[in-house]
């Protein structure tokens, strides 16, 4: 398994070269730096091993998380299908409000000579659902104290499926299921926000055990609690044929690992002191880390500040200034759930006659920076526009900075939800699974969408690969809740708003 969850175990191949000369613009440059995300390579991972069928335990169950601890920790995977149970009787905007929890009980098991285990089975939704069953597989690695898990779920037939998966430490009690926190706080996110700030772990085992998402595989996720204690992770996924690279399937990568006890405001939350990064990092000049950015280009991949009045933006989309930066925004802007351009306004507060009013002052478009995104005009997409801007510099820069702001996250009540791109173009080329959100039903949904922060992680990985060939480090600036996915492939992460 390639993506393990500590820097020393993380293995993504970056290719470095000695040449520093800037090459001419190459519209196929990103094709030489494919991401090879887990959803795209899961089947090949299985074929890479020689398997021997093994008898299942009685009753059938997945092996404990860490058998080396003082007492083995049971492990459960629960799937809930929120899809309309009968498409012929229910509107497509109707979610199943109370789906049956489906326990992934293994129906087959195999082991390899190199300490891998493979489980598999079928999940059949109970009545009144008439939807086809799910197929699931779990690939685990027991070679190190850190036990890694690669999970795949697929719906080979039928309509789009909207699911949540719970990965639980300890036994599952259907009469007392774990829940999200009642109020949004650092442990209550469902969004692209979780693994850098919150890692649920069991403190009553010796040593304590944490469940950690792979920072190279972003997912919309939240911590689950039972009676005030964290017990697992919840991931939200959409299975759709629109994700043509891995149709009707999705994966999740995580690990269970022993940790040292630590003390924080919340004793059940582990805050890693350093964000993990991919191997083969380049050194970043100290003057950049200190805030001296005079010779460093800064780009905002997911944003375009439109030079038109807010109310006139959509009318002027086809007549934005003639530059690659503007054209790439016009061609690659994200679409909301009603398939309109996804935009936001900034407001200034005006006080008149003691009454505060908000007046929109400017508008920005959300832009999808996926390097594989197609454009209707045949011109460069946002990723290529940034690469061309770097190539046009008079000399190779000491570093390149990508800035990601908090606008990549929306907030809906007690949960945090990532901004999504619902365009078929985004779904066709995404390397990470699609996601969904319950409030989509208010706008004609649910529909599968691509988290814009996940697309940003794809771009960060590809640009880092290309820059490393030129010995140019990549730096990202982001709010903490967007890490570690955006920072993982970078050589350093900073906060531009806090620099001196």
Characteristic terms for this protein:
500 residues, alpha+beta, 2 domains, 8-stranded antiparallel sheet, 5-stranded antiparallel sheet, 11% helix, disordered N terminus
* Integer count of domains: 2
Judged by helices, strands and strand pairing, the structural class is alpha+beta
Q: Strand count, sense and closure of the main sheet?
A: 8 strands, antiparallel
Question: Which runs of at least 5 residues are low in confidence (pLDDT < 50)?
Answer: 1-24, 183-198, 263-275, 347-356, 411-416
Query: From N to C, what is the helix and strand string?
Result: HEEEEEEEEEEEEEHEEHEEHEEEEHEHEE
Helix content: 10-25%
- Helix segment tally: 6
What general form does the structure show? globular
Whole-number radius of gyration?
23 Å
Oligomer: single chain
Which strand order does the major sheet show? 1-4-5-6-7-13-10-9
Strand residue percentage: 25-35%
Overall number of strands: 24
Quote the distance from N terminus to C terminus: 42 Å
Instruction: Give the mean pLDDT.
Output: 77
């Amino acid at each position: 398994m390639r993506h393990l969850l500590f820097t020393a175990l993380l293995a993504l191949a970056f290719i470095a070269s000695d040449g520093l000369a800037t090459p001419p613009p190459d519209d196929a440059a990103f094709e030489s730096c494919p991401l090879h995300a887990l959803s795209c390579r899961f089947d090949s991972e299985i074929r890479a091993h020689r398997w021997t069928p093994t008898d299942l335990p009685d009753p059938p169950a997945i092996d404990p998380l860490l058998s080396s601890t003082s007492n083995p920790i049971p492990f459960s995977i629960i799937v809930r299908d929120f899809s309309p149970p009968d498409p012929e009787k229910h509107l497509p905007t109707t979610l199943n409000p109370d789906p049956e929890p489906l326990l992934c009980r293994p129906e087959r098991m195999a082991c390899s000579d190199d300490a891998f285990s493979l489980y598999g089975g079928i999940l059949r939704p109970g009545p009144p659902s008439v939807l086809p069953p799910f197929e699931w597989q779990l690939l685990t690695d027991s070679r190190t104290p850190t036990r890694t898990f690669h999970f795949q779920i697929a719906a080979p037939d039928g309509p789009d499926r909207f699911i949540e998966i719970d990965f639980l430490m300890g036994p599952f009690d259907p009469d007392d299921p774990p829940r999200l926190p009642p109020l949004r706080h650092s442990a209550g996110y469902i969004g692209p926000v979780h693994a850098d700030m919150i890692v649920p772990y069991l403190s009553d085992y010796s040593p304590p055990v944490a469940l950690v998402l792979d920072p190279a595989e972003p997912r919309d996720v939240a911590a689950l609690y039972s009676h005030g204690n964290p017990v697992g992770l919840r991931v939200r996924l959409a299975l759709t044929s629109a994700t043509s690279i891995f149709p009707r399937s999705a994966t999740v990568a995580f690990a269970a690992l022993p940790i040292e006890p630590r003390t924080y405001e919340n004793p059940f939350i582990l805050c890693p002191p350093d964000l993990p990064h991919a191997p083969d990092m380049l050194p970043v000049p100290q003057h950049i880390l200190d805030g001296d950015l005079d010779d460093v280009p800064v780009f905002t991949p997911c944003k375009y500040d439109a030079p038109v009045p807010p109310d006139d933006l959509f009318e002027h989309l086809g007549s934005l200034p003639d530059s690659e930066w503007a054209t790439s925004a016009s061609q690659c802007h994200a679409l909301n759930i009603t398939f309109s351009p996804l935009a936001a306004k900034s407001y200034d507060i005006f006080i008149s006659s003691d009454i505060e009013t908000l007046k929109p002052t400017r508008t920005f478009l959300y832009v999808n920076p996926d390097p594989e995104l197609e454009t209707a005009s045949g011109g460069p997409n946002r990723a290529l526009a940034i690469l061309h801007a770097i190539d046009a510099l008079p000399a190779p820069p000491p570093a390149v900075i990508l800035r990601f702001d908090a606008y990549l996250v929306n907030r809906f009540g007690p949960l945090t939800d990532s901004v999504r791109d619902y365009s078929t173009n985004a779904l066709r080329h995404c390397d990470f699974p699609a996601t969904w959100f319950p409030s989509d039903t208010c706008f004609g949904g649910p529909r599968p969408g691509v988290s814009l922060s996940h697309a940003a992680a794809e771009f960060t990985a590809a640009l880092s690969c290309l820059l490393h060939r030129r010995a140019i480090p990549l730096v990202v600036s982001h709010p903490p809740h967007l890490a570690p996915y955006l920072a993982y492939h970078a050589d350093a992460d900073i906060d531009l708003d806090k620099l001196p």
